[in-house]
Amino acid sequence: MKRALGSKIAMYVALSIGALAFLFPFFYMIVGSLQTNVDPTPAGAFPNPANLTLDNYAAINGRIDLLQGLANSGIFTGGVILGTIVFGVLAGYALAVLQWRGRGATFALALLVQVVPFQLLMIPLYVMIARDYDLADSYLGMILPFFINSTAVIIFRQYFLQLPKELFDAARIDGAGEFRLLWNVALPLVRPALLTVVLLTFIGPWNEFLWPFLITKDAAMQPLAVSLANFISNIAASTANPFGAMMAGAVVLAAPAVALFLVFQRYFTSNDLGSGVKG
After folding, report:
1. Where in the cell is it found (predicted)?
2. Residue 271 belongs to what H/E stretch?
3. pLDDT tens digits, residue range 181-221?
4. What value does the CA radius of gyration of the chain take, rounded to a whole number of Å?
5. What's the predicted TM-score (pTM) here?
């Protein structure tokens, strides 16, 4: 009994130390964004309250429009998530539930796409979208290359394969079509997959720099990640506290992602597959 209690205490201590080590960079980033005078030593993580200010946020907002950058990032990320969910659900359902010739080859192709780096496709994509489609400096031009995500297709396929085949057979006997099956039977049972895909997809476009940097030249269209990179490269030195201003921008960029994970983390462990089957 004592040995089990000691093991549990040791496990919690180890997990707490790991959590603190993981969270410390975020804490230091927030503290750095609030400092009037930079303290690069470890003691800077615990500053004097008299050295704290919100001026760094005002300074970076005066150089780049934080709200506009956040709006651009939100539109870019939202468009990518919408396309990922819609096409991922449809393709995953077709690969897992429907019977059709070439299904295995299509799934193998989806797996093969995973090994092709995006950087290899970037130049032809830029030529096609900017020159052929004339979508430079537009939200659609930013979104299109990421609109369909093969990783999401694979995730949805694996979740749909876990659903009992009897559920679909019973619904078909009752006269339900495939779209009704997908909407009323399959989707309610794979909510963890939906949240997983949303969270995994969110991080990519939210932090994406290279493609929006290539496709947007108008500063008013650039996502926050690109605006912050331009700030660091070109105008950070013109601020009274460049380090604090950069940390303030990083906090603004990281805050929505951290908040999203904190709000939805409990849904990762939920699973409703058992609720649809009795007996």
Report:
1. Cell membrane
2. none
3. 888 888 888 888 888 888 888 988 998 999 999 999 888 89
4. 24
5. 0.82
